[in-house]
Design brief:
It is built from ten helices and eight strands. The protein is an alpha/beta fold and 267 residues long.
Length: 267
């Protein structure tokens, strides 16, 4: 029996409430999600810095984990020769997320003669992902790379796929995008994240669709959490687990063009 975890990430000040972890076991081709809860509940802390520290400790000992934040920025922006060097650039380009976004936009505009501020990576466009430093995900990108990915990518026991290979007992980390996974399954990929009856019905449609169309199954407790969590973070974590499973089944081989200096999204 093997294990994996899907993580819906947050770069908010109280990140522990927005980061959710879905832990699953895999046996005979069936993925059973046995636990799904926020990082604040799991690690006992919500404030961003200590929570990300606890998350990083967890990742060092995990088997396979998919995280829902960009693992890089466009090569045009970071202007480094390798992906590993791009992590160092992100970690040192600015002191906070807002300054990071400003630096990225200035470099993008300089590279495009002022025509564009929010550039995408090669992997982003085909799956409908946003610019890694754009208005919706810049905090996730900055704090995810600086405080989680960069410290792990340089260690022997971790392999960040597909940019790095690792030993058979290494922790495999990969970038996932739940919205794209849902879209690929023809399930609702939007408007399921509030406390309205309509959104709850959409969450139920997603949960039922995942059960019917994929190898996912849930304990009764987890199913209740997925329906009750109005923010949709629990559901995103579970879909992240599915994307992680699909990536591992494919031996982390990319299924579309990508730039090895930028990272790759698994769907």
């Amino acid at each position: 029996m093997r294990s994996l975890t899907g993580i819906d990430f947050s770069g908010a000040r109280q990140a522990g409430h927005g980061i959710w972890l879905a832990d699953a076991t895999v046996a005979d081709g069936q993925i059973t999600v046995e636990d799904c809860r926020s990082a604040a509940d799991r690690f006992g802390v919500a404030e961003r810095a200590p929570c990300l520290g606890r998350l990083t400790e967890f990742l060092r000992e995990a088997e396979t984990v998919g995280l829902d934040f960009p693992f890089g920025v466009p090569a045009t922006v970071h202007d480094r020769e390798t992906w590993a060097a791009s992590l160092e650039w992100v970690a040192t380009a600015a002191a906070d997320a807002d300054s990071f976004q400003q630096v990225c936009r200035e470099r993008a505009k300089s590279a495009t003669d002022g025509a564009r501020a929010d550039l995408k990576r090669e992997t982003d466009g085909p799956v409908g992902a946003l610019s890694p430093y754009g208005s919706h995900v810049w905090k996730q990108t900055f704090y995810g790379i600086r405080d989680v990915l960069a410290p792990l990518a340089g260690t022997d026991g971790v392999a960040v796929r597909p940019m790095q290979d690792g030993a058979s007992d290494a922790t495999d980390l990969c970038e996932v995008y739940p919205a794209a996974t849902l879209a690929a399954l023809d399930l609702p990929a939007a408007e399921y994240k509030d406390d309205s009856a309509t959104a709850r019905d959409r969450r139920r449609t997603i949960v039922d669709g995942l059960t019917a169309e994929t190898p996912l199954s849930f304990t009764d407790e987890v199913r209740g959490i997925l329906l009750d969590d109005a923010g949709g973070d629990a559901l995103d974590a579970v879909v992240a687990a599915l994307g992680t499973y699909r990536a591992r089944q494919a031996d982390f081989e990319p299924d579309r063009p990508w730039d090895e200096r930028e990272g790759h999204i698994y769907v």
